[in-house]
Write a structure and sequence with these properties.
- 22% of the residues lie in helices and 36% in strands.
- The protein has 425 residues and is of the alpha+beta class.
- It has 2 domains: 291 residues, no CATH class; 101 residues, no CATH class.
- Helix 1 runs parallel beside helix 2, helix 3 crosses helix 4 and helix 7 packs parallel to helix 9.
- The longest helix is centred in the C-terminal third of the chain and has 18 residues.
- It is globular and about 65 Å long.
Length: 425
């Protein structure tokens, strides 16, 4: 459905917490249509896993009240949206339905559903991915991606889309909540899918910016990986030309040393509070900016430590590593998570002037490990976003994994909040 050029862009969000699915649908449709007052050409729906047994009813009921528009969505352990008072709410563990409608002049919206079997091999040329999606790279599409947690080739999908659509931003997340036969629902064009992934490719007068808050703070200094095999760190040495301002001490490393030895020395230099935190919330940051001398937040891909080998001092991490890359140890807690998100939001605010277009709407994909369980209070990440961007409608859901870019490449994350901000020029 095309919206005529010259029509003002509009993006509206509504949230219902009514326990009846029929009542919740009626409420969000009434609120969004009253606010939009013009035909929509994009729809997004996020439904709480508290409704999991009724997922199959959502699309038929929604189609009865909503025009036939390009639409995707999924189920989540919690959903994000704007209530009747236009306040952003994060509803976790309770019945909730979030609906976003947008009228975007000059924007082509292409919804799609893919199964793992449909994906090309990673050795395939870019045009095989383009044929699969149905949008030319020349149109510079922006992507919203929602996947089933059991989608086994998600990393292949992200690499393939980056390969075929270099420069296009991709954001999204994995459906979460009930993992029963009723759970993990994906929705595309008024149909429900129990597996694979659904997405939207938006091209034309639309720009998508991503903020990826991985919730960690660095400790010590960056180190150069001198030996590594697959996901195993075998040797590190100090990288004097690469420094990061960070709390905590740092080990002095002048030659190749076992990573576990370096880590143990670093932990001993930390405060008592950070040493205790390192027992359960220690992570590795892999620098993605190879030629950047001074590293900062946003330059690291955060990955888990998954094991150690005391015999040789090796450390296994949750991603591939290769010699020549830089790593830095990180800690994660509620304070670090809040500071990380605030830093990234402020940085984006300072660089998003009128010359970059008008922000019209945003999506939030937040880990189920964040929210009230992390911060001890509800609505933390969304309210921090609205503090910096009070006039941008926001919706989204709590994910079993978050999709977003780090230094130009798209990754799957954990314990992260990814914000996608949509702009028109």
């Amino acid at each position: 459905m095309a919206v005529p050029i010259g029509t003002p862009a509009q993006w509206v969000s509504a949230l219902s917490t009514r326990p009846s699915l029929e009542a919740a649908i009626a409420e969000v449709v009434q609120q969004t249509q009253a606010a939009l007052q013009t035909p929509a050409n994009l729809g997004l729906v996020f439904i709480s896993s508290a409704f999991a047994s009724e997922y199959s009813r959502l699309m038929p009921l929604l189609k009865e009240q909503l025009p036939d528009i390009p639409l995707i969505g999924c189920g989540g352990a919690g959903v994000v949206g704007m209530n009747a008072y236009q306040l952003i709410r994060e509803i976790e563990g309770e019945p909730a339905l979030s609906l976003t409608l947008a009228s975007l002049p000059g924007v082509n919206v292409r919804p799609f559903h893919l199964s793992a079997d449909e994906l090309p091999d990673l050795d395939s040329p870019p045009n095989t991915w383009v044929d699969l999606i149905g949008v030319s790279p020349a149109e510079q599409p922006q992507f919203i991606l929602l996947a089933d947690p059991g989608f086994g080739r998600l990393n292949d999908l992200l690499q393939g889309l980056d390969f075929a659509y270099a420069g296009s931003t991709k954001v999204g997340g994995l459906a979460s909540g009930s993992m029963t036969a009723h759970g993990g629902g994906l929705f595309c064009n008024y149909r429900i899918h129990r597996e694979g992934m659904v997405g939207l490719a938006l091209s034309g007068n639309i720009v998508l910016d991503a903020i990826v808050a991985q919730g960690c703070r660095p400790i010590g200094e960056p180190y150069l990986v001198t030996e590594g095999e697959r996901n195993i760190l075998l040797a590190l040495e100090e990288h004097p030309s690469s420094t990061t301002a960070s709390p905590g001490g740092s080990a002095v490393v002048s030659q190749k040393r076992p990573p576990l030895e370096v880590l143990q020395e670093l932990i001993q230099s930390l405060s008592e509070e950070d040493r205790a935190l390192a027992q359960h919330s220690l992570f590795i940051g892999i620098a993605q900016s190879e030629f950047k001398q001074t590293l900062e937040q946003g330059d690291f891909l955060i990955r888990q430590l998954i094991g150690v080998d005391p015999r040789v001092g090796a450390i296994a991490i949750g991603d591939r590593i290769r010699p020549g890359q830089r790593i830095q140890f990180h800690l994660r807690d509620s304070k670090a998570s809040a500071e990380d998100l605030e830093t990234l939001l402020r940085r984006y605010q300072q660089t998003s002037g009128p010359e970059k277009g008008t922000a019209i709407g945003a999506l939030m994909f937040s880990c189920t490990g964040r929210g009230e369980g992390l911060y001890g209070e509800a609505d933390f990440d969304s309210h921090l976003f609205s503090h910096f961007f009070p006039n941008i409608p926001l919706s989204g859901f709590f994910c079993a994994g978050e999709i977003g870019p780090v230094v130009g490449s798209t990754y799957m994350h954990g314990f992260t909040s990814v914000f996608g901000i949509f702009r028109q020029m």
